Amino acid sequence: MTKHNAKSDQSSQANNPRKPTVKSAPKIGAKANTRRTTKHPTNESSPGIDARNRPLSDWREQLLEQLRRLIHEAVPDIVEECKWVKPSNPSGVPVWSHAGIICTGESYKQFVKLTFARGAALPDPHKLFNSSLQGNTRRAIDIREGDVINAEAFKDLIRGAAQVNQQYKHTRAKAAPSAKSPSKTPKLLSGDNPQIAKGYGDAPVQAYIAAIPGWKQVIGQRLDELITRAIPHVNKAVKWNSPFYGIEGQGWFLSFHCFTKYMKVAFFQGALLKPLPPGESKQKKIRYLDVHEADQLDERQFTDWVKQASQLPGERI
Question: Each residue of 136-155: pLDDT tens digit?
Fold first, then answer.
């Protein structure tokens, strides 16, 4: 952000009278120093991420830059990067991570959306969250031109998200040695489904989940958590680029797969479950459950289906 004299400020206000502001953020957007001293990964080609080499003419870019500064003030060692670059979105999506994804920033025509991967687990006494309120995992903040954000409350959310990620990381730690990290990022196939080599155990399943882009990764994490909690002794594997869950000696009872607009859960003996999972299949015994971004997953019903399915004869795949 560059300094402005009084005349330039007046001219700017005349051309753009409703600039987004951040409450209680001293002089943000007015006298921000253009020289950065904090070291962090950046991508200068992405809107709102380290745009120091060009003027921030769009109000959404200005807002993302203000929020970006607050994020780094809240968690100085946060990792900032650009993910999910594709022809339809060549700039990708700004992502901030600390022991996992904290939030993503996306620009739409009418608003800027910050999606917190584990927002449902965060206290929000100042009611900053105003979108994706019905989900069990994510929460989002939609900010329109002229909206005011409480800077300190926002930084508290960022710090809280970092703490929740750290706690989750500890609970997922295993006593057994972990598998070596792959040498390169897994390829995304049709529907953003990760290409993961066939393997047995928890490690390939976690590699699959870690490679899922965006909001679907949070859904995949939650499905895995609920299945593991319901059946602590569950067997896991990745086959045909999909996680499989089963019981030793009985076969596989469930799998899920990543599609462009939803995650599809397949119950291999779904026709025997009560009540029936809603999705039909060409194979009469299989039933599906599709989970979209805006859906509120009924975790109690899903857990009950998992327990029922685990007691039925599985598939020998």
Answer: 788 999 999 999 989 999 99
